[in-house]
Backbone:
């Protein structure tokens, strides 16, 4: 039996590849943005699938029940991959929101064109800056290499070890919180010292309206510290991308086969 000129085994193989790649592209940074039309994203997933079919060995034909389980497994692999890859962006945007709260911009919300959700001003600025840096260091190329390498680390048709994967994802989420503190700490500490100073001024000169004086000072100090620390984000960003690649590699290895004494497989990303 042939389907579009393909055998049943080849058709099932390319179907599973398309499902995994599509699930990954739905969540990974840059490619999951709403500004990219869904038709273009589907075309990219289809193109990647036809490229990868040459490198992924064809499976034996599966039964209907086995095929359904295999499709769900590919969706699981793709969603976990995309979630871990986007943790870096989530942490940096959350750091910007913390800075907004300290400065006083938290009451001003704008609509993020990428997610159609209300976000704070500096949080959106940090997300846009991160996206530009992500493209500047060619991290999207490493991401595509990771998508291709996932079929070496997690061969078709199934995936396993969900308990190990859950532990890894929780650990990576905690590392994401450290990224938040590293980025937001300089501005947050400076604004905390400003608030302490304003509190002392209120005790020394009770007749002075601290709220009227405090808002311009907080905004000025916050923006100055944001400008001063901005080069630091660019300096540490390549190491954050490399850390994200290691996290993806660890998660994919956890979902792959775990034979005793097996030779380590190549990494999913550079």
Residues:
């Amino acid at each position: 039996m042939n389907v579009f000129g393909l055998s049943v085994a080849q058709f099932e193989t390319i179907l599973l590849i398309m499902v995994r790649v599509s699930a990954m592209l739905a969540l990974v940074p840059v490619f999951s943005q709403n500004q990219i039309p869904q038709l273009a994203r589907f075309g990219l997933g289809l193109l990647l699938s036809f490229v990868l079919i040459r490198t992924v060995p064809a499976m034996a034909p599966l039964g209907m029940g086995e095929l359904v389980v295999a499709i769900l497994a590919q969706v699981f692999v793709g969603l976990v991959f995309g979630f871990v890859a986007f943790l870096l962006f989530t942490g940096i945007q959350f750091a910007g929101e913390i800075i907004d709260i300290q400065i006083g911009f938290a009451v001003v919300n704008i609509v993020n064109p990428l997610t159609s959700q209300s976000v704070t001003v500096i949080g959106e600025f940090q997300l846009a800056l991160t996206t530009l840096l992500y493209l500047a260091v060619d991290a999207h190329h490493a991401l595509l290499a990771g998508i291709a390498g996932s079929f070496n680390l997690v061969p078709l048709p199934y995936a396993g070890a969900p308990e190990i994967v859950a532990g890894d994802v929780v650990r990576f989420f905690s590392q994401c919180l450290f990224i938040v503190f590293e980025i937001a700490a300089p501005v947050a500490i400076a604004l905390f010292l400003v608030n302490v100073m304003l509190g002392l001024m209120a005790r020394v000169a009770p007749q002075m309206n601290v709220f009227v004086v405090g808002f311009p000072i907080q905004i000025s100090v916050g923006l100055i510290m944001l400008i001063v620390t901005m080069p630091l984000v660019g300096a540490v960003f390549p190491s954050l991308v490399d850390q994200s690649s290691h996290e993806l590699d660890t998660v994919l290895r956890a979902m792959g086969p775990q034979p005793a004494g097996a030779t380590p497989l190549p990494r999913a990303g550079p």
Remarks:
- Confidence is low (pLDDT under 50) at residues 261-270.
- Residues 2-255 form one domain.
- DSSP finds seven helices and four strands in the chain.
